[in-house]
Design goal:
This protein is α+β, with helices and mostly antiparallel strands and about 100 residues long. It has two helices and four strands, in the order ββββαα. Bound molecules: zinc ion (ZN).
Length: about 100
Amino acid sequence: MREQDYNLKNLTKCPLCKAKYDSSQTFVLEEGVSRTVFHLTCSKCQSALLAFISEGKKGVVSLGMATDLSVKEAREMFEKPPVDKDEVLKVYKYLNNK
Ligand SMILES: [Zn+2]
């Protein structure tokens, strides 16, 4: 998938301070056939966001989620295979319970 194929409209700005994300602060944690996960760090307020972009029958769906995981921690978390829908749910619950 090319970057312009993603529906990143609501993920290009920090949800907290509305600053535009710097592409140098954006890291791909995982790139799959139908799903890509990004870690974004706001250059202004330093808050981090996990972005899930998935391609389904209804088109491309994007989900942004605030996180206090650093890029390194997030990478370690996504290195654990296998990653499927249940794994995403687990990550989601994990992040929400923190
Ligand atoms: Zn910000």
